[in-house]
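step=predict obj=Amino acid ABC transporter permease n=231
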Amino acid sequence: MWEIIRTSLPQLLAAGFKYTIPLALISFFFGLIIALIAALIRLSHQRGPFMILKWFVQFYVWLFRSTPLLVQLFIVFFGLPYLRIRGILPHGIKLEPFTAGIITFSLNTGAYASETIRAAISSVDRGQWEAGAAIGMTRLQILWRIIIPQALRVALPPLSNSFISLVKDTSLAASITIMEMFEVSQQIAAANYQPLLMYTLVALIYAVFTTVLSVLQHYLEKRLGSQLEIS
């Protein structure tokens, strides 16, 4: 058993640092950008043609929050190549596994995080907008200098939890042949006929990763809280 662990652990860790962590970090980065844009659009009070964009964003959030992540991965990787449009996409949309994973995880994260950010911005007292306007600030200046810093304190815990969940969800990327930790553990288990040992080992590695992230989350929350109290 110890020999299997000794030989398998470096392979699993290499897959984790080469694919699992980068996949989670890149997807979360783009997901936050999508989430912020989606939240601001949904919070906007503009009318007219802008409502079409608002309805589209609402549909996007509903769609990705209402369907399983695994199904979304399959649609993006296996389904889009069959989206053939004569003269525009004669061969469909074929994506590399890692690219398909980033797109899917980013869109999924964006849908969930947009609700978190929208709620955090809405929780800031309306008087903050009025106070900023009273001293001559534009709405954009009020948003970035007053509202976002306060909303960040509210949004940080759930967003941190979303990132930790995303790290664990990257194991689903094995279904589209991305060589992350779970895919590597499956291949090793198929070779040494020790599935229980390999899956337990990869589970422990995920547990270590998420524990480190949880400690970092707690540190960031305390640091942000102390900075806001000082300011």
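step=describe
The CA atoms of residues 185 and 200 lie 10 Å apart.
step=end
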